[in-house]
Amino acid sequence: MSVNVENLSVAYRSRRGDVTAVDNVSFSLADGEIMGLAGESGSGKSTLGNALVYLDPRMKTTGGKVSVDRRELPIADNGAMRHRRMTEVSLVPQYAMSALTPTRKIGRMISDLLKSHHVKDRAAVMTELWRRLELIGLKEDVLSKYSFELSGGMRQRVTIIMSTLLNPSLLVADEVTSALDVSSQRAVGEMLTEFRDRGYIKSAITITHDLAILAQIADSIAIMYAGRLAERAPTSVLVDSPLHPYTQALLNSLPAVGVRHDQVTLTGIPGRPPSLVNPPTGCRFRERCPFAFAKCTETPPFEEIKPGHLVACWKVSQENADLAGAGQGLPVREKV
């Protein structure tokens, strides 16, 4: 198992007290797995990704642990994490295209990166860098350019190359396609899978609100809502047979390929996500859920309904228990 996250909780410090943005989240990634992490804005998905690298001083880990290649990461200690970044875990941050220093050439930034991590055989790393630039269709002269001389897609690819140059076990890619045109989105997505296939990274978490992108590149998808995981399954299973009402609602809000706008009416999700300053008890989706019942005032367990398919929903658990007692499997659930 490449990555293991156990009962991770992360809070932000605020004047009104700590705001728990990630609440008791657990999951694991196998070697070679790309997991998509999706949800509405404010669901906690970017906080979860950042917590694995710990770059934001406003955050504090209030519980849980993270292990990569069976070694626990000191995620509560930013100083200790400095020596583990880029080699064990690395982040392509949200708004990554703005993360490149505009007053330094790309080659100089890469040189500084190697120096800060005390890379001894820099010649070998630079040879590998040129190989990777060629792989993704960039010429060596990109190293002599400033970031503002590059297109958005080129800057994004350079950022990903820098984040993976030391072959981290885990890459966290936060909204890496959100500011790109369709062709650049596809190129970046193919770049992530190519780097995984070539062993430049062992596994990856791709964070986005765009389920269509995840359907193309992710092996599994996890859906996050109000700081907690609502559902996780292999990509094809989650897209074709979602079980959690929130996942169903998310998918129903997406336009189908090839369907004209006058042929179908998209349905939004009524209501709004709860405040994490004072979140509701029980299932946090219950006030927006058309299937909510009395049991939903209690917190549902995030449990495996089928092999590899985990859901936190009392109604799904009840249906599964009833069908198991009758000797049947859980049927494909109709979308909301």
UniProtKB/TrEMBL annotation:
Domain ABC transporter: 3-251
Xref: SMART domains: AAA
Example GO biological process: peptide transport
Gene Ontology molecular function: ATP binding; ATP hydrolysis activity
Name of a matching Pfam family: oligo_HPY
Keywords tagged on the record: ATP-binding, Nucleotide-binding, Transport
Protein name: ABC transporter ATP-binding protein
